[in-house]
C-alpha cells in the first residue's frame, strides 16, 4: 500500500485531480482507495467520488494532519486488513500541513504496512497574486509547497503563459528540489506524468 497525498490550498483542484487520476491509475491495473478529509459538516467530496466506484473513506471531525491523525492511522490499518489497495490517495483539507501527514504515515509504517509515496501539492495558477499577498495565507501556502515532492501548477488552461511562468518562478523560490508539473484536468495536460509518478516512485519505506 502506497500512500499518495494530493494536497493544496482550498479550491486548488484536489478533488477534480483525484477523480481523474484514480480512474487512470485503476485503468493501469492498480487497486485504488481514496481517503478524503473534510473539515466541514457536509462531506460532499466523498459522495461525488463514490459515484465513480472507488473505495472511499471520509474522515471528518478535524484535520488529519493533527486532530484526527489517529483516525487516519486506524483507517490505513483497516485498508490493510480489508480491501488491500495498491495505492491510497489522500485528500487533506486545504489548510493541512503535508509533512505532518507524511510523518504520521512513516512513523506507523510497521503497524499499517503502508509506505510513503509522492507528496503532490497543488498551486492554483489562477490565484497566484492572492495566495502570495496575505501574510498568513502566504505562510501556509509556502509550507505546503516546501513539503512537496511534486508541485502541480493547476488550472493551467485558465492561465495565460505569462501567469503560468510567474507562478512557476514563485513556487520554485519556495522549493528548489521538487519536480514541477503543469496540469489541466480540462485538457488532460500533465495527467499522465502524475500517473507515472504514482505508479513508480516510492519516496520512503
Ligand atoms: N478550468 C479548470 N477548472 C478546474 C481545474 N481543476 C479544478 N477546477 C475547478 O476548480 C474548482 C475547485 O476544484 P476542486 O477539485 O473542488 O478543488 P479542491 O482543492 O478539492 O477544493 P476543496 O476540497 O474545497 O479545498 C471546481 O469548480 C473545479 O471544477 C482545471 O484544471 N481547469
Ligand atoms: Mg476537495
Task: Give the topology, please.
Layout: E1 2-8, H1 14-27, E2 32-37, H2 44-50, E3 55-59, H3 69-81, E4 87-91, H4 98-107, H5 109-112, E5 115-124, H6 128-131, H7 135-146, E6 150-154, H8 161-174, E7 179-182, H9 191-200
Parallel strand pairs: 1-4, 1-5, 2-3, 2-4, 5-6, 6-7
Helix pairs in contact: 1-9
The chain binds guanosine-5'-triphosphate and magnesium ion.
Guanosine-5'-triphosphate is lined by residues 8, 10-16, 45, 94, 154-155, 157-158, 184-186.
Task: Report the β-strand fraction as a percent range.
Answer: 15-25%
Question: Any low-confidence stretches, pLDDT <50, length ≥5?
Answer: none
Which sheet architecture does the biggest sheet show? 7 strands, parallel
Q: How many helical elements?
A: 9
Radius of gyration: 16 Å
What name does CATH use for the topology?
Rossmann fold
- Total discrete domains: 1
In round numbers, the mean pLDDT is 90
What structural class is derived from the secondary structure elements? Answer: alpha/beta
Approximately how much helix is present in the residues? Answer: 40-55%
What ligand molecules are bound, each kind once? Answer: guanosine-5'-triphosphate, magnesium ion
H/E element string? Answer: EHEHEHEHHEHHEHEH
CATH architecture: 3-Layer(aba) Sandwich
Please state the oligomeric state of the protein chains shown.
single chain
> Given the C-alpha coordinates, what overall shape results?
globular
CATH superfamily: P-loop containing nucleotide triphosphate hydrolases
Number of beta-strand segments = 7
CATH class category name: Alpha Beta
